[in-house]
């Protein structure tokens, strides 16, 4: 079989999130719309038979993966969409998406004029995405540059080999990426972002401090995902002690705020709410701005 970059491991999680966005798109109370998401899922043999519409989800919102977690991904998409649009509407013209996966923000968001989006991810993932978008004859709504690179390697050199300008403020996004990096890799990434960021730059990322308690590891989400997708999320999450990246940023002159997903559930009036032994309880979304 020819590798597509999305048939297993972290690449398969990109398909899982795309399916979640497709389900969210078709919800009557949708938080985020992504018309491309279902096409990625349909294009991969690995995801054949996955639900793409709320009506196709067994047990509806009670489904631990395609119900509650899919709604979580829909909420995360909405929050980070809003963040990027807010930052670019206030003047930032460079957006760098680290671990872009099957994200299609360059195609679906209403960007201000002059914004350039840079997508970094594994070569196989970006090639798969580009093939699907080409088949759809999709056209990005702003300037888009893809950079195939392993984010555990010297990705900064690959970014700097494009027309990216480190002297200009940048909106950086690491959506879900840090969960899969080692402690050292996370610190290296945060430090590199800081070095490439002049004052006025922003950074948004997701973290999951600490480790899952044994009771949380027994949450039905993990067994369901393993059984139905062949995906062991707990094995994919890096088990290193997490670095305090917010303190690292603060010491480098950034201001940071952290929120739980449930903060945004309350803000938007829909989304996941806390439950016992909750896999989402430790998730935090961090937003940072580099001071002048």
UniProtKB/TrEMBL annotation:
InterPro entries: Ppm1/Ppm2/Tcmp, SAM-dependent_MTases_sf, SAM_mthyl_Trfase_ML2640-like. Keywords: Methyltransferase, S-adenosyl-L-methionine, Transferase. The keyword S-adenosyl-L-methionine applies. Pfam families: LCM. GO terms for molecular function: methyltransferase activity. Belongs to the UPF0677 family. PANTHER family: S-ADENOSYL-L-METHIONINE-DEPENDENT METHYLTRANSFERASE YKTD-RELATED, S-ADENOSYL-L-METHIONINE-DEPENDENT METHYLTRANSFERASES SUPERFAMILY PROTEIN. Exhibits S-adenosyl-L-methionine-dependent methyltransferase activity. This is S-adenosyl-L-methionine-dependent methyltransferase.
């Amino acid at each position: 079989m020819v590798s597509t970059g999305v048939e297993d491991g972290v690449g398969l999680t990109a398909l899982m999130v795309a399916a979640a966005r497709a389900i969210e798109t078709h919800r009557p109370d949708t938080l985020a719309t992504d018309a491309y998401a279902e096409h990625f899922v349909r294009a991969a043999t690995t995801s054949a038979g996955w639900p793409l519409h709320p009506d196709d989800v067994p047990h509806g919102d009670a489904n631990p993966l395609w119900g509650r977690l899919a709604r979580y991904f829909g909420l995360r998409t909405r929050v980070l969409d809003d963040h990027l649009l807010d930052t670019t509407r206030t003047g930032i013209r460079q957006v760098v998406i680290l671990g872009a996966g099957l994200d299609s923000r360059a195609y679906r968001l209403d960007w201000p004029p002059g914004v350039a989006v840079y997508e970094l991810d594994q070569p196989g993932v970006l090639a798969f995405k580009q093939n699907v978008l080409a088949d759809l004859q999709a056209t990005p709504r702003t300037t888009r540059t893809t950079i195939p690179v392993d984010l555990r390697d010297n990705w900064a050199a690959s970014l700097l080999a494009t027309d990216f300008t480190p002297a200009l403020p940048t909106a950086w996004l690491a959506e879900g990426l840090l969960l899969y990096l080692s402690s050292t890799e996370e610190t290296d990434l945060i430090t590199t972002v800081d070095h490439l960021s002049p004052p006025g730059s922003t950074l948004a990322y997701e973290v999951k401090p600490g480790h899952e308690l044994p009771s949380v590891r027994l949450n039905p989400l993990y067994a369901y995902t393993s059984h139905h997708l062949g995906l062991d999320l707990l094995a994919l999450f890096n088990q290193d002690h997490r670095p305090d990246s917010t303190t690292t940023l603060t010491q480098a002159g950034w201001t940071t705020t952290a929120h739980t997903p449930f903060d945004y559930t309350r803000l938007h009036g829909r989304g996941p709410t806390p439950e016992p032994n909750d896999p989402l309880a430790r998730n935090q979304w961090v937003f940072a701005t580099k001071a002048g």
